[in-house]
């Protein structure tokens, strides 16, 4: 490095504009000093490997528009435990099931805090609700209340009439499209149905959809507040700031609403995109569903337990297309040591489930859609048993709403497969575009249009 500096300084001495050249020289020297200091610091503290950084922004420029894919590529180059500098934030990226297992079994408490970013504070009521609250006694009480009162097995079963009603309305809309011989925007229909199910289960009100199938959850809550106002609740509690009540109530329910609607609709969207690209798999899953249902007009909840291959299809879809591929970021409560590396306190931790789900060391033909890989595989489950399939997180901070999401997911999906045959409109043999769009969940970049054909029930 000293030779490089000497060479640069020697050349700069012969240039006419001394002020500009001095500035350039200062910048170059600063960059080299920063790089040298960083390398020495990493070596001294035995920190995990880190890609070269830029001043101020660190590694932000390397994230791209689809961070889970960019981080997978970086981990492939530098290793499954990766330390990044994202502006002022130090971040650890974990891309190995072995490392995830060690975190859960040995350091789960140290990794159980949430990273309280500015975005999470704005959208989730200063990180006081269950999804982003810091680990501790208050969080444990909230989670226990949520699991026992809102997301218990009996409570999820009690919502079955709501699921049936909303799915029936979606089916009627699809039948109308069939009479016209037109294709349907399945992405929009599934999103609307999922939101209606979640809204009715959470608020007791149907979610009113706009043209794009999405509308602010605040509008639904505002209706509730309006009704309360008409009943004179404001007069009974004049000291309450109803705007603050509305904001707090809405924020506390956002993680539940996202988990219950976006996760379901996004997964079903990817399921049907994969099935449309794999006609043999589509035929196999429809044969199973129709054999089990046996000619009934609607699917019963007990039928779903027998649909083993459908569950394999869902698992394979969640493997290739996890709704939240980087899970919800955590933060280390104290410094720990993993695989000989020192992990500092207050480091934001991203677990890249996308990279783990496509790890060729864990999965044969990891990039291909092969639901059969899950037949008889008890180690791969929605809840992260075996640490190979973790679409809903792991450890203490795993998503508590898995049963709620899966119940809606299976019921909506099974009815669509049972009552209709599906084909790609104007199909010229080309596969459906599987490009991704990054957001709260990773959805298809382009809406999924399919042409439905009613299945004649004998």
Sum this structure up briefly:
By secondary structure, this protein is of the alpha+beta class. Helix content is 51%, strand content 9%. The chain has 2 domains: 1-45; 137-454, Orthogonal Bundle (Cytochrome p450).
Task: Describe the overall structure.
- α8 (160-180) packs antiparallel against α9 (186-203) and α10 packs antiparallel against α12.
- The protein is built from 17 helices and 12 strands.
- The model is unreliable at 1-5 and 210-214 (pLDDT under 50).
- A hairpin with a 5-residue loop joins β10 (436-437) and β11.
- The chain has 458 residues and is an alpha+beta fold.
- It has 2 domains: 1-45; 137-454, Cytochrome P450 (Cytochrome p450, Orthogonal Bundle), CATH 1.10.630.10.
- The longest helix is centred in the middle third of the chain and has 36 residues, at 242-277.
- The protein starts with a helix and ends with a strand.
- Strands 1-2-8-5-3 form a 5-stranded mixed β-sheet, covered by helices on one side. It has a 3-stranded antiparallel β-sheet with strand order 4-12-9. Strands 6-7 form a two-stranded antiparallel sheet.
- 51% of the residues lie in helices and 9% in strands.
Distance between the termini: 80 Å
- Strand/helix succession: HHHEEHEHHHHEHHHHHHHEEEEHHEEEE
CATH-derived architecture of the largest domain: Orthogonal Bundle
Low-confidence stretches: 1-5, 210-214
Mind describing the biggest β-sheet?
Answer: 5 strands, mixed
Cα shape: globular
Strand order of the largest sheet: 1-2-8-5-3
Keywords: Heme, Iron, Membrane, Metal-binding, Monooxygenase, Oxidoreductase, Transmembrane, Transmembrane helix
Transmembrane segments: 20-38
Protein name: Phenylacetaldehyde oxime monooxygenase CYP71AN24-like isoform X2
Cofactor: heme
């Amino acid at each position: 490095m000293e030779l490089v500096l000497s060479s640069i300084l020697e050349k700069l001495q012969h240039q006419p504009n001394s002020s500009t050249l001095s500035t350039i020289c200062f910048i170059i020297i600063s960059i080299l000093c920063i790089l040298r200091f960083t390398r020495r610091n990493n070596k001294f503290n035995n920190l995990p490997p880190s890609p070269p950084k830029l001043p101020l922004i660190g590694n932000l420029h390397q994230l791209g528009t689809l961070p889970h894919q960019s981080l997978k590529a970086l981990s492939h180059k530098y290793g499954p435990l990766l330390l990044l500098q994202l502006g002022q934030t130090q971040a650890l990226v974990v891309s190995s099931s072995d490392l995830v297992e060690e975190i859960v079994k040995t350091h789960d408490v140290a990794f159980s805090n949430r990273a309280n970013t500015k975005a999470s504070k704005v959208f989730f009521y200063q990180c006081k609700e269950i999804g982003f609250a810091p680990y501790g006694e208050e969080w444990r009480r909230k989670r226990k209340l949520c699991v026992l009162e809102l997301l218990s097995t009996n409570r999820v079963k009690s919502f079955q009439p709501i699921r049936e009603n909303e799915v029936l309305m979606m089916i009627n809309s699809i039948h109308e499209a069939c009479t016209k011989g037109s294709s349907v925007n399945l992405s929009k229909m599934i999103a609307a149905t999922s939101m209606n199910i979640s809204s009715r289960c959470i608020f007791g009100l149907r979610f009113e959809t706009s043209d794009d199938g999405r509308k602010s959850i605040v509008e639904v809550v505002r209706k509730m507040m309006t009704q309360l106002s008409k009943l004179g609740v404001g007069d009974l509690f004049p000291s309450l700031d109803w705007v603050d009540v509305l904001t707090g109530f809405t924020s506390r329910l956002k993680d539940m609403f996202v988990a219950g609607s976006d996760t379901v609709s996004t997964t079903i969207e990817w399921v049907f995109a994969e099935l449309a690209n794999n006609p043999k798999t589509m035929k196999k899953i429809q044969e199973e569903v129709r054999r089990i249902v046996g000619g009934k007009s609607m699917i019963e909840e007990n039928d779903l337990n027998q649909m083993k291959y459908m569950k394999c299809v869902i698992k394979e879809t969640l493997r290739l297309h996890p709704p939240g591929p980087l899970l919800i970021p955590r933060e280390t409560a104290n410094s720990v040591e993993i695989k000989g590396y020192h992990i500092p306190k207050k480091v934001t931790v991203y677990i890249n489930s996308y990279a783990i789900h496509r790890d060729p060391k864990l999965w044969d033909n990891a990039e291909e859609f092969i639901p059969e890989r899950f037949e008889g595989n008890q180690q791969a489950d929605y809840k992260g048993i075996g640490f190979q399939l973790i679409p809903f997180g792991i450890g203490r901070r795993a998503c508590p709403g898995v049963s709620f999401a899966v119940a809606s997911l299976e019921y909506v999906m099974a009815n669509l497969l049972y009552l209709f045959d599906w084909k790609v409109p104007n199909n010229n043999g080309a596969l459906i575009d599987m490009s991704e769009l990054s957001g709260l969940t990773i959805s298809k970049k382009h809406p999924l249009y399919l042409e439905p054909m009613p299945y004649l029930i004998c």
